[in-house]
Records
---
Amino acid sequence: MPTYTAQSREAGRAPLPMDTARSFTGAWWLQPVLTVCALTAFGIYTTIRAFQNQYFCYPWPGLDAGGIATGEAVHAATYLSPFYSPYLPITLSIGTFVVSPAFYILVFPLAFRMTCYYYRKAYYRAFFWDPPACAVTEPLAGPRMRYTGEREFPFLLQNLHRYAFYAAAVFIVILTYDAIKAFIFTDPVTGARSFGIGVGTLVLVVNVVLLALYTFGCHSWRHLIGGSVDCYSCSGGTRTRYGVWKKVSFLNSRHALYAWLSMFSVAGADIYVNLLARGIITDLRIL
């Protein structure tokens, strides 16, 4: 429907088409540009850290002659980066290059994020401009009108999201264990272990909480909880499911917020552990 803008009313002109009027109402391009910058920066940082294969736990035990950190030393560390959890010291070399254990791990949470319904919307708009924003015509709209949805490769792989969710849920359990382990500190002299709280403890706890809110606000989890039910009031079991579904729906309505917060928190947790392991900063003990 034609839309009047303040400019067209004042000039006495006819209403402008919606996509033209949109340019007068604000910087619609700002959000896709910020999305491109944030997702690109996260992708670059994640790739670099996966290739580094060092400084992913604190205290940092160092690498052995084979170019890997021993599993015993890493598991004894107080803090473990979420990029390397669970730590799988699988020795696989390509020439002189030792394949980082992070590559075996990151494929699962990244598959969950890449196929997430919210992230699809975000990067379809930001990277493909399909469309770039509400009521804004996509570039070369005519030649690009052969719409196939997600029925052809590579977008067919988006349908794996429901299975990627199961892997993501398992990682929440693993990262929860890491967060609990972050309360246990080892005396470097005596080797005695004791309960404590450091800034790193809080960083790992906040990270797993945000990841859990994002994961269990997922559309696939919401469907598993409340889908395939025609009558929520027919029995006690379905009424219980309805109650859980409402709580999951509360998280689902904030899925975009938790998606961004958890992305920054997982990168922030890795940065914090990395700086500690390198000796650049010191972990502040609260308790």
Note: The chain has one domain: 26-143+151-217+254-278.
---
Amino acid sequence: MTKQLTLKVKKEVSRRAGGLCEDCHKAPDWRGLAYHHVKLKQMGGTRRHYTTENVLLLCGKCHSKRHGIKEV
């Protein structure tokens, strides 16, 4: 497993997403897309979880939602 989010993983996740959010399947808003770990470090994940299976590309709204941040 890789110890960082490599360019190879980023390219594969971006290809898989096709420019859309992998949660809502919509084009990103002004915030763009962000790489999100499915298994967070706080939930027992480690740096070695930088794999295509553990990373999603999310829009700002979905990324905030995944982190429990309410949007105003």
Note: The mean pLDDT is 86.
---
Amino acid sequence: MNIGITWKVLRAAGDLARHDQWARPQLESVQANELRRLREFAYARSPFYRKFHQGKMDRPLSDLPVLTKAQLMEDFDELVTDRTVRLDAVRAHLGGGGDSRRYLGRYWVNATSGSSGQPGIFLFDENEWVKVLASFARAHEWAGVHISLTHRMRMASVASVSPWHMSSQVGATLSSWWMPALRLAASEPIGEIVSRLNAWRPEMLVAYASMARVLAEEQLAGRLNIHPHLIFTSSEVLTQETRRRAEQAWGHPPFDQYGATEVGDIAAEHSVCRHRHTLEDLLIVEVVDERHRPVPPGRYGANLLVTSLFSRTQPLIRYELNDSVRLGAAQDSCGLPFAILEGIQGRTEDVLSLPTAAGASVDIQPLVFHRILDLLPVSGWQVAQDAPDRLTVLLSGSSDGIPESALAQRMKQALAAEGVGELQVSILKSAVIPKNASGKSPLIKAYRHQGATSRIG
């Protein structure tokens, strides 16, 4: 890690730590000031935003149009504020191999997998990248890890190792003498992952939530023998059963992080209250319904809009994330001024559209399946919609004692209570839950009819 970046991250993390002492009115005042500066910069430097917000440049944030990933990519060259940046050249840079070169010698490039149908490309200059790194460092601080050059902590990550994935770029930038890192692809065979983790003996483990469940089962079975002081999960919904199994395996539950390639960490758990708090000094978050109207705290929204207060190269103002989340209704007693991210149901792509008896359709939230399947004595599960009216439930691990017909009937009854009509439910046992290209094991897989864009990776 570049020593200059190291000091900048430590300094930025220290600044963020001082924000924890703010009162809510001070936070809101800073947000308003930073939003004003962001909009002024975007209107001065981005031809796209001058047109996109035309006639509304003096309007409140909630009156501005929503920016989708598809629109961002379509108008990429006009949206970025550096007139020398061109999408074709950035794509050529991405195709040039997995080295550590920066685009134009100054931009870190991150790319989403495109599992929801549209890949995205996001650029960060050094100041922006320092803020991203500091957001992850803050999650570690909130978990009780003091970031210091004098304390060495061996870290292992089991996620994506794609050179353009954010987890890889963050790991590569932070890897140093004081945080030596082992980065393993979650798509590797589990035996290889277990062997390398046993040899590395990580003090900190970072993994996809589904992979944390698998590793916990390996630890409980005696094949994995590691003793991390801290466990972080990300990228997928952390279920209560995965949390319980991880605590059983390692003696303490994982800390959950919620982030995005576009902006870094959005929310992280604090050790005092064990609630996820949003990083509102870096971002403005809006929970909205299908028509982008605000959803009150305590209720799940259809989408999440984020405004990155520190983005300048590629301004993100009311940028849409297809995640269904719920904010808490009250400020936490732990004293932090930041809103609580109370619940995460997953992406809207995780919602299954199933037929009703009247021939219409009803959306089924993942929580309906969690209520039943999280309680089973299995190491993993997955619900796949094979056709509009057909589901296959995969169970892995010790599932021999589970009566398949009774489980299928219970699922039908639960779905009928939600308005679903006739449905075929098959229960299958599998040695492992299949992974996608990035190594995730999605809990819900929506039906892909021919010619449609995939709703889940």
Note: The mean pLDDT is 87.
---
Amino acid sequence: MRLLQYTHRSEPIDHYALTVHREGGAFEIRVADNSFPESTEGRTFAMRLTPLSGTTVEVPLERTGVRSYRGEAETDLEGVVSAVLVEAFRGGVRPIISRYVPDAYAREFRELTPRLDKLEQIARITGGRLVDNLEEFRAAGGTGVRDERDLTWWLLALVLVLFLTELVGRALGRL
């Protein structure tokens, strides 16, 4: 899911900066309108949230400053949601910016401490045991990283072979 955040456009588009924070079904939307010197008086913005199921929720945005807007919504939307900023325009609406908003990780995946109860249960099932420190782990025969290898020369050799293969292929008219 996080791949969508990296591949989808995130810089301001058309002088608008859009931020959508999500916690489960709760959305917090912030918009900065940097379209200077246009007047922002009388502009009406809303955010359309659409999950894969296609059920759209429209969140009206209220003006919080000269060129800033904000909105909140508590929804039952699940999964990846398409968020489209729209503006009321001559009896209709026009889309301005869109973002994909992935679902946040569930709380159990966001814990930073180990679940010792689960680890003990796994150790009991598999016949293993938990150790408290690294020295005890090493004394029991455990190892960390076994071997580090510098792959630079192998990669350079691969590049050279591919380069020579392409040269020979072009010379013979095969590529």
Note: The chain has two domains: 2-101, 113-143+150-171.
